Amino acid sequence: MAYSRMECKKGNERAIEMYIKNIFNNFRKYSFLLKQLVSRDFKVKYKRSVLGVVWSLLYPVLMMCVMAVVFSNVFRFSMPGVNYLVYLMTGLTFFNYYSEASNSAMSAVVANFSLLNKIYIPKYIFPLSKCLFVGINFLLTLIPLYGVIILTGSGETKCHITWLHLLLPYSYLCLLIFTIGVGFILSTISVFLRDMFYIYGIVITIMTYFTPIMYDISMLAPWIQNVLKLNPLYHYITFARTIILYGEMPSVTRFLICGGSALIVFVIGIVVFKKNQDKFIYYM
Q1: Distance CA 143, CA 150 (A)
Q2: What are the b/e assignments for 169-205, b being 16+ CB within 10 Å?
Q3: How does DSSP classify residue 214?
């Protein structure tokens, strides 16, 4: 009995490994299609927009200004020795990517049912293309982020760009992998449960307050801090803030938590999507 269970476990591990290899092989095979989907989304989003891509630069800045005014003056949030604008902008940049990408990925399969009925396309291409498309906007938002880093702060609150910033792509990559995994899960659930579109809107609202975007968790009770640290977004944002705000190297533990949480969610997303993708046709 123990031997058969071990064999079954090894068989499942091999199946997952083969599926992941399949994804990367298909990624190369359908790379042109992926580029076309990303290009289509980009054109549709900014079609008939006067400012176009400039909105990707303006939106995070405008949001930062509103939130900075509200939380600095209305709620009297203060963080001595820290550039609050950079603190806020870093959190917004990461969270806005996750929010937009996961929302877009959730509806990706449902929105392309008509195309899936006509020709064979790997279904995971659709949520993946959404995460990559929003990733382009994410890279654009780094421009205003660095503008805020360079132009704001003085004395001990002044942030300096050092060689440690070369480590920031690690946190971006972890965020991307994590979001793709979540996108696979959400896009699968939304096929069977259309209410998910409304439920997830509430979840995102809750996550906005359970992710330390505009506040420092040190002001909260220890048990609440432990709860918030279960949120992977907290670790990706903290990784970036450690480098940007404090000019320090993130701990090895932080590296492992960021990479580990991203890979775990990614693998879970792949498994959930793989096990259910053949049933999608019955819900089209």
Answers
A1: 11
A2: ebbbebbbbbbbbbbbbbbbbbbeeeebeeebeeeee
A3: S
**pLDDT tens digits along 173-182:** 999 999 999 9
**Do the Cβ atoms of 109 and 184 come closer than 8 Å?**
no
Helices (H) and strands (E) in the chain, counts: 12, 0
Q: Which of 117, 284, 266, 278 is nearest to 184 (CA)?
A: 266
Domain boundaries, the chain: 30-283
Structure tokens of 148? 């805020």
Q: Please tell me the distance from the alpha carbon of residue 238 to that of residue 223, in angstroms, as a whole number.
A: 18
pTM of the predicted protein model = 0.83
**What type of residue is 96?**
N
Sign of CA dihedral 91, 99, 102, 146: negative
CA 70 – CA 77 distance, rounded (Å) = 9
What number of residues does the chain have?
A: 284
